[in-house]
Design brief:
Layout: H1 3-39, H2 41-45, E1 49-54, E2 57-62, H3 82-89, E3 96-102, H4 108-124, E4 149-155
Antiparallel strand pairs: 1-2, 2-4, 3-4
Helix pairs in contact: 1-3
């Protein structure tokens, strides 16, 4: 191979790899938004949920968070639960980062209880590792948008530069 071809490959190779990663991230964000719009369609039509597209994910706001089932039967699917619809619309948990905040008009104690209840719900579906704290996700406190129980879902694609392929018998998450 001649020198100019090697130079061109050395310059364009990383740029093409970077462009491919960026497009994978964007495709995953678009897929997440489409899935959430589809799985939450009945709740959106009933004005129970608002979905807002973000550059790196989406924000789902449960507008009537006080009506969420909060008893032991909440996980039994007797009635349609917007939290379950949101979980169904998510992508692979390994590439999702969630943050829960309540911007409703209730007292601070009531809002904290609703957030804690939602976090327990996510943990029941083994989504606890996807939850992020305010230090990790500065957008944890939602000040714009509709009031209610807001869940910010961010797509975080893994760094492919260090991928050895399949390691430890498990495939790595992908965007």
């Amino acid at each position: 191979m001649n020198r100019s071809a090697l130079r061109t490959a050395a310059i364009l190779g990383p740029l093409l790899a970077l462009a491919a990663c960026a497009s994978d991230q964007q495709r995953s964000v678009e897929l997440l938004n489409r899935r959430l719009q589809t799985t939450l369609a009945p709740e959106i039509a009933d004005n129970r949920v608002a979905v807002e597209a973000l550059p790196d994910g989406a924000r789902v706001t449960l507008l009537d968070a006080a009506r969420l089932p909060d008893d032991e039967g909440a996980l039994d699917n007797r009635e349609r639960d917007p939290r379950a619809s949101m979980v169904e619309g998510m992508l692979a948990p390994d590439i999702m980062r969630l943050s829960v905040a309540d911007t409703g008009v209730a007292t601070e104690l009531q809002r904290k209880k609703r957030v804690d209840s939602f976090v327990q719900y996510l943990q029941a579906f083994r989504l606890g590792p996807t939850l992020q704290t305010a230090e990790v996700m500065p957008m944890n406190t939602v000040t714009d948008g509709p009031q209610g129980l807001a869940v910010t879902l961010r797509v975080e694609c893994p760094d492919r530069t260090n991928w050895p392929g399949y390691g430890q018998g498990q495939s790595l998450p992908s965007c």
